[in-house]
Amino acid sequence: MKEFIDYILQFGDLNRQQIDLITSKATRLNLRKDEYFSEAGKIPKQVGFILKGVVRFCYYNNKGQEITHHFVDENNFVSDQQKFEAQIIASDYIEAVTDCELLVFSKKDWDEIGNTIVGWDAITGLIVKNCLLKTIERRSPLVSEDATTRYLTFMEKFPLLVNRIPLSYIASYLGITQQSLSRIRKSIR
């Protein structure tokens, strides 16, 4: 819980009573590897903060291929935020890549926090902005680089994830085949 409070306090000031309200609304959720936090075709039910583990955002393209476009690890929020706020059907899956432990907030509780704490919208706005900037920062260089450079960049940006994520997910994220990734890994050893 401390990691969660420390994370939030980076984006704004909260008093003890406000922190107690927020923590009282949080529930713990354990996800097993390969379980979904949120599923395409369904309305997202919760916002989570990852205490332990890694999740990925993925979808199926028009050829039926699974595409991984984002990873989120410890001490970060995870949600399909836009769809969660609007309560509309998600187009992405959010899947546990490893066993995960999260703090989660239902839509009702999340809204209640927002309606009770003055300035909560500003704090969550900064958190969402920070998450988007991280995503863009991690993703943008991958667009124009060759496959080897993309993998080396991935290893640099996600040093703690390389050995925790299946190669098929990394290959999908990098936009290459698993065979190509295996060749690249052999060539750089």
Automatic annotation (TrEMBL):
TM regions (residue ranges): none
Residue span, Cyclic nucleotide-binding domain: 30-113
Domain of life: Bacteria
CDD domains on file: CAP_ED
UniProt protein name: Crp/Fnr family transcriptional regulator
